[in-house]
């Protein structure tokens, strides 16, 4: 399976490392910033790196030829329809909430701010609306009393994201399709920025 990884920062790097250990071919890494640590890690591993022309949008020409699946890992860019169509199975991303709850940026912070006793992670299909595509995999965890957003992310949500991504990749290898369950809009929340 050929993957184009779109991402940044630490979670982008840990996702890249998980993919390298998961018997898939990483055809290309796409980043918004040429100096990002994901770009440096990919280059060091001999993986082609492409810098997005528009940091808010990934287009088809930035997706590697013959890509089976686009994976986003800490990317704030929208993956255009043409880019999704360039990949055999489209694209998936990880969102650190139980979608459709806490769509948008700062999902972990909103989990803490709202006092949610349970958090979780979702692998979802990339779609026109941010964080609104069908659910491919989802799992929950408890939030510890007094835990900060960063502590929750590092302890539970980042590792959960890597596990769920690996599970979905394994599913696609066997079934030659992405699992999909439509999000229930009656439970959707979209949090404004915390700033």
Automatic annotation (TrEMBL):
InterPro entries this protein is in?
A: Formyl_transf_N, Formyl_transf_N_sf
Q: Which UniProt keywords apply?
A: Transferase
Which GO molecular function terms does the record list?
Answer: methionyl-tRNA formyltransferase activity
Domain of life of the organism encoding this protein: Bacteria
Domain named Formyl transferase N-terminal: residues: 64-157
The terms describing its cellular component in GO are: cytosol
Name of the featured protein: Methionyl-tRNA formyltransferase
What organism does the UniProt record list as the source?
Bradyrhizobium niftali
